[in-house]
Amino acid sequence: MFPHRDIKYRNGGFSLVEIMVGMVISLLSVLIVLQVSKDFEGQKRTTTSGSDAQTNGAIAIYTVERDARMAGYGFSIPDALGCTINRSFNGTSSVLSLAPVTITDGASGLPDTIRILSSSKGNWSIPARITTDHPATATNFFLNTTLGMAEGDLLIAYEAGKDCTLLQITGIPNGNVQIHHQNTSPWNPPGGQNIFPSGGYSKDIATLFNLGTLMDHTYSLDANSNLLFSDYNSSTNASDVQPLIPDIVQLQAQYGFDTRAGAQADARVDTWSDTMIDADGNGSTTDGSDIKRIYAVRLAIVARSALKEKANSSGTCFTTTATSANKPTWSGGAIDVSKKPDGTANADWQCYRYKTLETVIPLRNLIWRQS
């Protein structure tokens, strides 16, 4: 027999104090994780929003730049630049200035509007000289060549000292170097009413150049900070306007002029201006010789983050643009983002992040004509 021993078993587990200490540590850990997650999410949102603004701005400036580089393509008679084009569609008359680029300056720092004109003719077409006087009521032109012309093409008739005229080819007879512009086209009113000069066009002086169809694109901003694209359709004489890119809050543009006189003029920009100026010094700011001295366009686009930054306890968005002195800038000066594109106040403008993109666009079709 073994001697009897009292064996005491100790109960396992944690004391109340240990449990309370564990709970406190757990709660502190949860609070720390939540705070880190909150800060990380805020940084991620800020980074993502900044990246979205950068992407939107880059696409916007590329889109406008691509069109602007084609400005003036097909305007094969340099002296015709700036002429007033008389036109009529289904009996409704209108005028158009033959300017490759037109900038409408926004009042008081509001966004500008850019209009770009060019020909969409894909194959080569040379200017044609008129070989027989063309009365205002005539429905055909006798020419020295119809090379590159096709039925349905839009032509512009030009003669120095007279308004230009837009017409459409309705036929090219075989065996004759001529084109018809009869009123079977909505662009050709009966007998040339309202569009041709009263004295018509003179042989061996007037010329025609072929647009094919007119490419007429306009870029602007709407009240919701969308970049709008207006595409003109010459078959309907109407424009289709659609939003292209969101969160674009500013569009600023300037003409680049060569204002040097005589032999000093060398198709290099020496003056930037928001509006047309008297670049040639002849006392007028609207003639074609000033348009021919525009060799570049300077462009700035400001894109905004899609999400607002969270304000602090006092309601201030101190993490972004804190003061008016920190507004976006470009080579043309300060850019006002405290207003919406339609001019109404934007009280939350400091709660966003902004990306400013700037470029200089050479108007190569004007430069090459000076070579």
Give a description of the structure.
The chain is of the alpha+beta class and 371 residues long. It has three helices and 19 strands. The longest helix has 53 residues.
Summarize the structure.
The chain is α+β, with helices and mostly antiparallel strands.
Structural class: alpha+beta
Largest sheet strand order: 2-1-8-7-10-5
User: Biggest sheet, open or closed, and with what strands and sense?
Assistant: 6 strands, mixed
Radius of gyration based on Cα positions? 33 Å
Could you say which overall geometry the principal axes of the C-alpha atoms support?
elongated
Name the helix and strand elements from N-terminus to C-terminus, one letter apiece.
Answer: HEEEEEEEEEEEEEEEHEEEEH
Are there runs of 5+ residues with pLDDT below 50, and where? none
Estimated share of beta-strand residues: 25-35%
Total DSSP helices: 3
Number of strands: 19
Distance between the termini: 125 Å
Q: What percentage of residues falls in helices of 4 or more residues?
A: 10-25%
Mean model confidence by pLDDT: 87
Please supply descriptive tags for the structure shown above:
six-stranded mixed β-sheet; single chain; elongated; five-stranded antiparallel β-sheet; 371 residues; alpha+beta
Topology readout:
Layout: H1 16-68, E1 84-89, E2 92-97, E3 101-104, E4 113-119, E5 128-129, E6 140-142, E7 154-158, E8 164-168, E9 178-180, E10 207-212, E11 214-221, E12 227-233, E13 238-245, E14 248-257, E15 271-273, H2 288-291, E16 294-304, E17 329-330, E18 333-334, E19 354-362, H3 364-369
